[in-house]
Design brief:
Layout: E1 6-10, E2 13-17, E3 22-28, H1 43-55, E4 60-64, H2 77-94, E5 99-102, H3 106-114, E6 119-122, H4 132-138, E7 142-146, H5 164-181, E8 189-192, H6 201-209, E9 222-223, H7 229-235, H8 243-255, E10 260-263, H9 266-281
Helix pairs in contact: 1-2, 2-3, 3-4, 8-9
The chain binds 6-hydroxymethylpterin-diphosphate.
6-hydroxymethylpterin-diphosphate (HH2) binds next to β3 and β7.
C-alpha cells in the first residue's frame, strides 16, 4: 500500500512527506531521560550532538528538556527554558534544519518559537496547557499532536483500554478539531499514537501492527518506538541494547504507513528506512 503524500509546513519551512521516511532526531537535554539522560547536559555538547545527528541524516531535531518517564523529576518553566534556549540558539546559528521543541507548556513553546523553533511537539496533544493551541497558531508552527492516556503521573496506573486503536483515533480526532478551531492549518499537523504513553506492552503492539488504521484521519503519522520498554519486554534487553529491536519496530512502522520516525539512532535507523523505502518503491532511488 502506497503511503499518502503530504507537505508539512512549519513556520516558513516545508517538508515533503511520504516519498521517503523522515527522521526526527531526539536531542534530550535532561539529566534523567530513560535512554540518554545526562549525556548532553551542557548546551555545547547538546549542540554538537544535534549537529552530528544532522550529518547522520536527521530531517528534524527534537529538543526536549523534561523527561516524561515514570518517576521523572518535574522541571520548572525557568529550568526548562534554561536548558532548551541555549541549545536552540546554538543550533539556529549552525543549521537551518527544522527544529521542534518537545514541550506541553505554552510558555516554553512561545519562547522557543521566538528563538526560531519551527515545530511544537506536544505529547499532550494540546490538552495540558489551554494557551498552547493559540501560541502554535500565532507562530504558524508545525504541531505534533501525540495521544497520551492520562498524564505522565497517572499513565502507568491506568487500566487497559477496551479498544486502544479506537481510543487513540478518537483522541487524535478531538485534538485535530481543537487545533483547527484555534486556527492551525491541517498542513501544519502531525499525528502520533504515543507509543508507551499510558499503553501496556500489548497495546503498543496493537497500535504498531494496526497503524494503517490511523491513515483514515488523513494526516501524516509520526511514531516514536525508539528504545522503548515494549522492546525490552520482548527481548529482555536493557535500554542501551535495543537498537535491533528499534530497527525491527521502525521497519514495521514504515510498512504500516508512518511518514516520520522519532529516533535516537539516526544513522542506523536511517539505513533501515532507506532499505524499507526502496523495497516499497521497488526501486533503489526513492
Ligand atoms: N516519546 C518520548 C518523548 N517525546 N514525542 C513524540 N511525539 N512521540 C514519542 O513517542 C515521544 C515523544 C519519550 O522518549 P525520550 O524523549 O527518549 O525519553 P524521555 O521522555 O525520558 O525524555
Amino acid at each position: 500500500m502506497a503511503r499518502a503524500r503530504y507537505l508539512l509546513r512549519a513556520r516558513d519551512k516545508t517538508l515533503e512527506l511520504g516519498l521517503r521516511t523522515r527522521l526526527m532526531a531526539v536531542v534530550n537535554v535532561t539529566p534523567d531521560s530513560f535512554s540518554d539522560g545526562g549525556r548532553f547536559l551542557s548546551p555545547e555538547r547538546a549542540v554538537e550532538h544535534g549537529l552530528r545527528l544532522v550529518e547522520a541524516g536527521a530531517d528534524i531535531l527534537d529538543i526536549g528538556a523534561e523527561s516524561t518517564r515514570p518517576g521523572a523529576i518535574p522541571v520548572s518553566e525557568e529550568e526548562e527554558l534554561e536548558r532548551i534556549l541555549p541549545v536552540l540558539e546554538g543550533l539556529r546559528r549552525e543549521t537551518a534544519i527544522p527544529v521542534s521543541v518537545d514541550t506541553y507548556k505554552a510558555r516554553i513553546a512561545e519562547e522557543a518559537l521566538r528563538l526560531g523553533a519551527d515545530i511544537v511537539n506536544d505529547i499532550s496533544a494540546l490538552r495540558f496547557d489551554a494557551r498552547m493551541a493559540t501560541v502554535a497558531a500565532e507562530f504558524r508552527a508545525g504541531v505534533v499532536l501525540m495521544q497520551m492516556r492520562g498524564t505522565p503521573a497517572s499513565m502507568h496506573r491506568l487500566s487497559p483500554s477496551r479498544d486502544i486503536l479506537s481510543e487513540v483515533r478518537r483522541d487524535l480526532q478531538v485534538a485535530v478539531d481543537k487545533a483547527t478551531s484555534a486556527g492551525i492549518a491541517r498542513d501544519r499537523m502531525l499525528l502520533d499514537p504515543g507509543i508507551g504513553f499510558g499503553k501496556n506492552a500489548a497495546e503498543n503492539l496493537v497500535l504498531l501492527n494496526r497503524l494503517t488504521e490511523l491513515a483514515g484521519l488523513n494526516l501524516p503519522i509520526l511514531v516514536g518506538p525508539s528504545r522503548k520498554s515494549f522492546i525490552g519486554g520482548i527481548l529482555g534487553r536493557p535500554v542501551q541494547d535495543r537498537l535491533l529491536g528499534t530497527a525491527a519496530a521502525s521497519a514495521v512502522c514504515i510498512l504500516r504507513g508512518s511518514h516520520l520516525l522519532r529516533v535516537h539512532d539516526v544513522g542506523e535507523i536511517g539505513q533501515v528506512a532507506r532499505v524499507v523505502d526502496a523495497i516499497l518503491a521497488e526501486q533503489i532511488e526513492t
